[in-house]
Write a structure and sequence with these properties.
Length: 242
């Protein structure tokens, strides 16, 4: 009788553990290390990412410690978010771990200064999609939402008027699926002409990548439209939505 009871308990424990495993939340790594300019919006950006996770069913770890970039540790995450990172922030071993992570199907989200990062790492240029060149003073401009079928943009109108810091880019990777462009006639200081991308996505090297130039200002991280934009990018790279 005791043996049957123990077997029953074991079976119930196994079923419970299996159910918990199936229900485990996806986990994101939000990385905001800087080795150049440091954006004062990073703290509120971290809080916004934690809140997005709490409201949308994923766990979030925030860090500026590059030592977490190991092959073993990165297996824990559905996606890596570079939140206004700047400069050279990973060593060669950490870069190799990240490359392996993406090649095994990992996701990447770059926000704002993620393009002002790792200029000496050609693979990263392909991952993030472009490099920062320059920017004029913060001002209001008109964004053209050229693809409203993606989860990062389907909540937006065709024109999105907002204030932020607008990057000019260099080393723009061919073949990006552009979601948003900026109308250079609506502000001063644009240097990419009529085809000036602000947000894009694509499949790359086994994984998925999404980037948005938006997010310089603290106010961005309290803006519902912007947060939905970022959430849609997360959903895309994690495979939650195609």
């Amino acid at each position: 009788m005791l043996k049957k009871y123990l077997l029953l308990l074991l079976a119930l424990f196994t079923m419970s553990a299996g159910y918990a495993f199936k229900k485990a939340k996806p986990r994101l790594l939000v990385f905001s290390k800087t080795a150049g300019f440091r954006h004062d919006a990073i703290p509120v950006g971290k809080l916004a990412m934690l809140q997005l996770g709490a409201e949308n069913g994923f766990d979030v770890d925030t860090t500026e410690d590059a030592s977490v970039f190991t092959a073993k540790n990165l297996k824990r995450y559905k996606a890596i978010v570079f939140l206004s990172t700047t400069g050279n922030i990973l060593n060669e071993e950490q870069q190799a771990a990240m490359e392996s992570y993406i090649k095994k199907g990992g996701g990447f989200v770059g926000i704002h200064a993620a393009t002002d990062t790792e200029y000496d790492w050609p693979w990263y240029n392909q991952l993030v999609g472009a490099y920062f060149l320059s920017h004029p003073n913060q001002q209001t401009a008109t964004l053209k939402v050229v693809d409203r079928t993606h989860p990062a943009t389907r909540h937006l109108d065709s024109n999105w008027i907002r204030r932020d810091e607008w990057y000019n880019f260099k080393s723009i990777v061919p073949g990006l699926h552009v979601l948003i462009k900026i109308d250079e006639t609506s502000y001063t200081g644009g240097k990419n002409g009529d085809d000036h991308p602000m947000s894009w996505y694509r499949e790359f090297d086994g994984g998925r990548t999404f980037y948005t130039e938006l997010g310089h200002t603290k106010e961005s991280y309290k803006e519902e439209a912007f947060l939905k934009h970022v959430l849609g990018g997360i959903e895309y790279v994690t495979g939650k939505k195609k």
